[in-house]
Design brief:
alpha/beta, Rossmann fold, 6-stranded mixed sheet, 7 helices, 56% helix, globular
């Protein structure tokens, strides 16, 4: 199954060892992960700035993500009443890749429920769905 993990999920996967990390590993092992330059940029900036991971390690994470996920170029999407326009490339990545799910920790995106044919779900909802079969 083709999946897009929002940058917030990937950042948490490398910053903590909780649900985000487990979900990230599960997705890598069992599904096709999709990524774009905008997601990679957000991950890099947050890991360097907020999480304070050393630049060398962030470079290794960036290389790992590039080799583990299929890169796509987002299409332009227009969502009315979206407060955070930085989410548009993530939505555009889901659309252009034909992802089944966009998994995010962003409540505004989860409230959209769907963009084109891609379902937008919280990481907990996706995790529960996968556990239940």
């Amino acid at each position: 199954m083709r999946l897009v993990l929002d940058s917030n999920v990937i950042i948490a996967a490398f910053a903590t060892r909780g649900l985000c990390h487990a979900l990230f590993e599960y997705c890598l092992e069992n599904h096709e992960m999709i990524i774009c330059e905008e997601i990679l940029g957000e991950v890099r900036a947050a890991l360097l700035g907020k999480v304070k991971i050393p630049e060398e390690v962030v470079g290794q994470i960036d290389s790992y993500l590039r080799s583990s996920a299929e890169p796509v170029r987002p299409v332009d999407v227009s969502i009315q009443d979206l407060k955070d326009n930085s989410n548009l490339p993530i939505l555009g990545t889901a659309v252009s890749s034909g992802a089944v799910y966009l998994i995010t920790g962003d409540g505004e995106l989860v409230m959209l429920k769907k963009v084109a044919d891609t379902l937008i779900v919280s990481l907990r909802a996706f995790w529960e769905k996968m556990k239940s079969g």
